[in-house]
Amino acid sequence: MKRVLLTGMSGVGKSSVVRELAVRGYKAVDTDDRWCAPLPDGRQMWREDAIQALLDVEDADVLFIAGCEENQAKFHAQFDHIVLLSAPLETLVERLATRTDNPYGKKPEEFRRFLDDVRTVEPLLRRIADHEVVTSMPVDDVVTTILRLVDV
User: Fold this and answer.
1) How far is residue 2's CA from residue 18's CA, in Å, rounded to a whole number?
2) Greatest CA span in the chain, whole angstroms?
3) Does 41 score more than 90 pLDDT?
4) Which CA distances in Å does 5 have to 11, 41, 73, 80, 148?
């Protein structure tokens, strides 16, 4: 089974990509949905036991996992591809402000944290990524690009 990590900053479109992959029949998991545990500072981390169990199951030709948590680095070696999803900062800010399915980034302290993460975390993700896909195109095109890059 091929395992693909889709990572990137809040608002980049990870959840939208997962939904489109699922519509196309792929096994795709958004780790924001029950795969994370909250931390006292308002952040969250992957539930490592749950993520490991997910990675251990071989019930599909390819597994897409979308998320961006600090402890994901513990699992990087288990992925065949790491795809960084990115977008211009202005696009990310607009998406955070207008999205209705996820409240993250609406509070001032979360927005400050988001801006800091874009400045400090995204460059680290760029260094470890096998591929980068800019998500300012339609989601259908983003998914088609991802599938081509990971040879699915």
Assistant:
1) 16
2) 42
3) no
4) 16, 25, 11, 8, 15
pLDDT per residue as tens digits for the range 42-70 = 789 999 999 999 999 999 999 999 999 99
Alpha helices, H only, 105-138: 108-128
Rounded CA separation 114/40 (Å): 17
Sign, Cα dihedral of 15, 60, 125, 39: positive
Report the residue count for the chain: 152
- The candidate with the shortest Cα–Cα distance to 96, out of 80, 113, 83, is 113
Which pair of tokens denotes residue 19?
Answer: 């939904």
- What is the reported pTM? 0.95
- Laid out side by side, the sheet with 81-86 consists of 27-30, 62-66, 2-7, 81-86, 131-134
Does an H or E element contain 9, and which?
none
pLDDT digits (tens, 9 = 90+) for 73-122: 999 999 999 999 999 999 999 999 998 888 888 889 989 999 999 999 99
In order of 19, 48, 57, 59, 109, the CA distances from 142 in angstroms are 12, 28, 26, 25, 30
